[in-house]
Design goal:
- The termini are far apart.
- This protein is mainly alpha-helical.
- Helix content is about 45%, strand content about 10%.
- The longest helix is centred in the N-terminal third of the chain and has 26 residues.
- The strands form 2 sheets. A two-stranded antiparallel sheet has the order 1-2. A two-stranded parallel sheet has the order 3-4.
- It folds into 2 domains: about 30 residues; about 70 residues, Orthogonal Bundle (DNA polymerase, domain 1), CATH 1.10.150.280.
- The protein is built from 4 helices and 4 strands.
Length: about 120
Amino acid sequence: MMLTRSEKRALVFLSASFLCGLLFLGLRSLGRERTDICLAGVAETVGGVEAAAPLNINRAGIAELVTLPGIGEKYARRIVKLRQKKGRFSSLEELLEVEGIGPRRLAKIRQMICLE
């Protein structure tokens, strides 16, 4: 199949537009801060007090999850059960699927948890 000169130009234009769009999206995402990624073993100092590194909810067991404020053994078991049922969490908002965890409880722990 042969393309005419104008069809080739249109194809080049569309390809260039697509690549520019991908470049734009890539550059745009560089400036965003990812708060859901864990930095293993990293702790930060806040007001002279060392804060613990965020807890990876895809690896944490019940014993680790209960250290979070507002998360007792009952909620920790539900989190682990949901993770076993659905697989790894891909966003922190998936915790809203756990019975009893709503937007307020998630907001309380959001800065203390992360995904791998």
